[in-house]
Amino acid sequence: MTDNAAPVDPKLLEILVCPLTKGPLRYDRERGELVSDKAGLAYPVRDGIPIMLPDQARKIEG
């Protein structure tokens, strides 16, 4: 987990979807990321705020 990682509000996680696929996201607490398995992207969470920009996301190996 990054030093500036803060927990993500569970209510927020219930409503957030991947901006590309509109599919569900799962929270990777260890990495501090929201993962879209369908898109193969991991969106960073900085200071408890999800950065839902595809150009800021990390490509994940599938």
TrEMBL record:
InterPro entries: Trm112-like. It comes from the Bacteria. It holds the Pfam family Trm112p. HAMAP family: UPF0434. Belongs to the UPF0434 family. This is UPF0434 protein OF850_20605. The lineage of its organism: Bacteria, Pseudomonadati, Pseudomonadota, Alphaproteobacteria, Acetobacterales.
